[in-house]
Amino acid sequence: MTSTGKCLKEWNATIEALGQGKQTILIRNYKTNVTEFLLYPTVSYDLKDNYLESFQEEYQDFVQSNSLPDKKGDKVLIKYFATVEKIVEKPASRLSSDKHYIWTRDHVKNYITGKTDYIWVLRVYSLKEPYWAEPTPVAIRYANLKEGCFS
Questions:
Q1: Which H/E stretch holds residue 16?
Q2: Which of 37, 94, 106, 140 is the most buried (most CB within 10 A)?
């Protein structure tokens, strides 16, 4: 990667799990044509008292210590880059094995809103030089992305 303006917003604990090899997939309600992007850490869940219940018990300590991204003022530290190696389409009734992710099966079931889920098989790289990013605009919720972040 030389440069990109594309990023995927995701919970920081999930990004760290991807970056540290504890998780290898993302499960989404949609496909994407974006094949490479930066992983932009968010904290949308940190206000919920019970957010740890969304993660498998064996990962809860990891999640708790990685809930918040590194920040400097309004800037957030971007550390990882991902490529989508494959997208697998599955009926929502047939969840992927939880050995590939840190969430609970119930969390994944509640997240999937349609009849089909899309498993993004990722390859994640640590950036040679992490950098401090400005806040992103509101997440763009469609798959054909030119620049900006999507979630």
A1: helix 12-19
A2: 37
Q: Which pair of tokens denotes residue 107?
A: 């969390």
The answer to pTM > 0.85 is yes
Question: How far is Cα 127 from Cα 49, in angstroms, rounded to an integer?
Answer: 32
Q: What is the mean pLDDT of the chain?
A: 86
Distances (CA, A) of 139 to 1, 56, 142, 149: 22, 27, 9, 5
Task: Report the alpha-carbon distance of residue 137 to residue 140 in Å, rounded.
Answer: 8
In order of start, what are the domains of the chain with their CATH numbers? 6-132 (2.30.130.30)
Residues 6+ apart with CB under 8 A from 110: none
